[in-house]
C-alpha cells in the first residue's frame, strides 16, 4: 500500500498542487511570481519522484484492489509523465517575465496548468478507455480555458470557442468509439480488448475496428493531422504565448502517449488495418502543414503550421508500426523528445521577446535581431536548425530515426515525401535565421539578461546540441545514445 | 598524438572560434586567434604530409563509436585524395585571412573558422552520417557570409543557394539512410562506415536510384551543367573569401564526393553511366565557356570559367584511365590555387574601383605594373599557361580523353581553346587600352604581395616540376583506379 502510494505520488503531488493553487487563487496578497513558484514546486516534486521510481517496478497496476486494471504503472507512462511535468515546469519558468508583463493572468491560471498536467498524466497511465476519455477531457478542458484566458481579447476568445466546440465534438468520437468497442468486447479495459483482438478473426471484429477508428479520429484531431487541422493555426495564434508553448510542446505529446499504447499493444495484431488510412493522412498532413507553414507571415503562426508537419513525421512512424517496423515505436518516442526540446526552446524565445514588446512577431520584426540580441538570436537559430532537422542537432537524429524506420517498413514514398517536406521546412525556418542575421538592427545591442527565462532557453539550446552530437565517451552523461536508450526502454516496458 | 591529429586539424578552428566567442574576444584578439588557428592547422597538415606514406592506403585512421545504437561512428582517415584537398584548404586559409585583415565585422572571422572545420571534416570523414554532418555544416557559414556580407541581391541569393544545395543534400541523405538500412538488413548490424557499406551488393535498379541521390548532391556542388543555376548569382553577390572557398574548395568537394563515395559504393553503375556524365561535362565545358565570353562582370565571368574547368575535372574523373585520373587530381589542386588567386585579384580590383564590370575597367597596365603582372599570371594560369600547374593537368586530362575516345579528345581539346579566347579578350579589355577610370590606381602593397606570392610560387612549382607531386600520389591513385576497373570489368 505504502509502496503504491509512493508510485502514485507524482500524480498526487500535481493534483494536490492544483487544488492548493485553486484555494489560494482568491487571495490578492499573493503575487503571480509566488503562484508560479508554488506551481513549479509541486511539479518538481512530481518530476523528482517520478525519476526516482523510474525502472523501480515491473509493470503493475495502480491500486489494483480499488481501481482494478484502470491505471497501469510502467516506464512508458513514467517517461511521458516526466515530459509533461518538465514541459509544464519549463513553460512556467520561461514565461515568468511574460506573466508579469500581462495583467490578465491570475492564480487560477497556474491551477489550470496543473490540472491539465494531471489529466495528461492520467492519460499516459490509463489502461481503460473510459478513464482515458475522462483524463483526456480533464486535460482538454483546462487547455480550452487557458486558450481563452485573455478574455478581453477578441482572437483569444474566438480561439477558445473554436477549439472548445471542435474539440468537444471530436471528443464525442472517442466516447462513441469506446461504446462500440464495449459492444464488441464487453469491457473497456485494454487487457480485455487486447485479449479479444488477439483471439478473434478479423471478420468478427468489424465493430471493434470501427470503434478504434473513431478513437483515431479524436487522436488525429488533437495532434492536428490534416484534414482535422483547421483549428490549429488560429488557436495557436489566439492563445497567449505560454499556452501556445504548452500546447505545442506538451499537450501534443500526451496524445501520443495514449495513441502509442493503443496502437502498439492493444490493436497490435490488427494494426495493419489502419496503415493505409494513416499513410493517406500522413501525406495530407505533410503537404498541408508545409503549405500552411510557408504561407504565414507571423512567426507564431508559422510554428503552428510547422507543428502540423511534425505531426506528419510522427504519423510516418505510426504507420511504420503497422508494417512491423522494429524501430518505429522508439523512433516516435525519440522524435517526441527531440520536438519537445526544440519547441519549448523556440516558443520560449518568442514569449521572451513578447514579454518585452507587445508587437505581433512577424518575420519582418525579426530583422536585425541578431545585432540587437546576439545570444538570443543564436539560441533561436539553434532551435530553428533543430526543427528543420539540420545535422548536429537533436532534430536531425529525430528525423534520422523516423526515416530509417519508414525505410525499414518499406515506405519509400513516405520517406521521400518526408525528406521533401523537411527540405521545404528549411525555407521557413531559415527565413527566420536570414531575417535575424542579414539585416542591420534599428536599435542598439542590448545586454543579455540573466534570469529564469533566459537560463531555461540556454539549457534547451544546449540540450538540442548535446542531444545531436553528445557522445557516450563522457561517462554518466547520457548523450544522443542516452536519449535513444530512454526511448527504447519506454517502448520495451509497454508489452 | 598521431591518432588524434586528424581530430586536431578539424576542430582546432572551431575550438578557437568557440573560445574566442565565449570569452567575447576583442576584434584584434579574434583576428590573431583566427590566424593562429589557420597557421596551426597548416603546420599540422604539413606534418601529416611529411609523415604520409604514398603506398600506405588509408592512414591516421581513428574510429570511435559515436551513436552506438545506430552504428554511427566517428571515423576519420586520410589517403592521397583527402591529403591533396586538405592541403589546399589549409594552404588557402592563411592568405584569405591576410586578405580580410582589415575586415572589422567579427562574424566574418567566426564564419571563416567554422567553414574550415566543416570543409576539413567533410574531407576526412569515412562514416557517411559524419560526412553528411560536415557537408551540411560547411553550408551554414557560406549562407551567412553571402546573406550578411554580400552585395547585390545577396539576401535572396543566399536563400537560393541554401535551398538548392540542401535539396541535393536531402537526396543524398535518403540514399545514405537506405544504404545504412541495407547493411542492417544483410548483416543485422547498423553501420554507416564506408568500408562496411562497400561490401553491400546492390541490384542494378537500387544502385541507380541510390547513386542518383548522391550524384544530385555532388552535381549541384560542382556544379555540373543543368545544376548550376545557383552558381552565377552566388559568386556574383558573395564576398571574396566566400567566393574563393566556393570555387577553390567546396566545388572540389563535389568531385571528391563522387570519387570517394560514388566510386566506392556504386562503381559499376557510375562506369555504366559514365558516358552520360562525360557528355554532360563536355556540354558544360562549352556552355560555360560561351557564357564566360558574353559576361561583363568579372566575378560572374570567372564563375562561369570555374564551371567550365570543373566540368573538365568531372570529365577527367569519369574517363577512368590513369592519365585522366592523375590529371584530374592535379587539376583539383592547381585550379584551386589559380582560382583563389584570380578571385583575390578581382576582390582587390573591386576594393580599388568599386566595380568589377569589364566595361568600366581598362588601362590598368599603364598605372599598376605589379597588379597587372599578377592579374595576368593568375588569369593565364586559369587558362592553362604552359609553365603553370594548370597546363600539366589539362594536358593529362586531354591525353586521357584521347585515350578514352578520339572524338571526346578532340572535343575536349577544342573547348579548352575557348578558355584562351575569353581570358585574352578579358585581359585586353581590363589591363590594356585607354583607362576608363580616372581615379588613381594604387599598385599592390606589401601585404597583398605577401598573400599572392605563395600562390604564384605554388602554381609555378606545380607547373615546372609536376613529377615531384604526381609521384607521391600516383601509386595509391593507380591502385584505386585498378580496383574500380577490375570491379567493373566487361562494362568498358
UniProtKB/TrEMBL annotation, chain A:
PANTHER family: NADH DEHYDROGENASE. NCBIfam families: NDH_I_N (TIGR01770). Keywords: Cell membrane, Membrane, NAD, Quinone, Translocase, Transmembrane, Transmembrane helix, Transport, Ubiquinone. It comes from Sulfurimonas aquatica. GO terms for biological process: ATP synthesis coupled electron transport. Residues 126-425 form the NADH:quinone oxidoreductase/Mrp antiporter transmembrane domain. This is NADH-quinone oxidoreductase subunit N. Its EC number is 7.1.1.-. NDH-1 is composed of 14 different subunits. Subunits NuoA, H, J, K, L, M, N constitute the membrane sector of the complex. NDH-1 shuttles electrons from NADH, via FMN and iron-sulfur (Fe-S) centers, to quinones in the respiratory chain. The immediate electron acceptor for the enzyme in this species is believed to be ubiquinone. Couples the redox reaction to proton translocation (for every two electrons transferred, four hydrogen ions are translocated across the cytoplasmic membrane), and thus conserves the redox energy in a proton gradient. GO terms for cellular component: endomembrane system; plasma membrane. It holds the Pfam family Proton_antipo_M. It is a multi-pass membrane protein. Belongs to the complex I subunit 2 family. It catalyses: a quinone + NADH + 5 H(+)(in) = a quinol + NAD(+) + 4 H(+)(out). It is an enzyme of class 7 (translocase). The lineage of its organism: Bacteria, Pseudomonadati, Campylobacterota, Epsilonproteobacteria, Campylobacterales.
Automatic annotation (TrEMBL), chain B:
It is found in: Endomembrane system; Membrane. It is an enzyme of class 1 (oxidoreductase). Residues 125-413 form the NADH:quinone oxidoreductase/Mrp antiporter transmembrane domain. Keywords: Membrane, Oxidoreductase, Transmembrane, Transmembrane helix. The chain crosses the membrane at residues 6-23, 30-50, 80-101, 108-126, 132-149, 161-184, 204-227, 239-259, 271-290, 302-321, 327-350, 370-400, 406-428, 449-470. It is a multi-pass membrane protein. GO terms for cellular component: endomembrane system; membrane. One of its GO terms (biological process) is electron transport coupled proton transport. One of its GO terms (molecular function) is NADH dehydrogenase (ubiquinone) activity. Its EC number is 1.6.5.-. Belongs to the complex I subunit 4 family. This is NADH-quinone oxidoreductase subunit M. The lineage of its organism: Bacteria, Pseudomonadati, Campylobacterota, Epsilonproteobacteria, Campylobacterales.
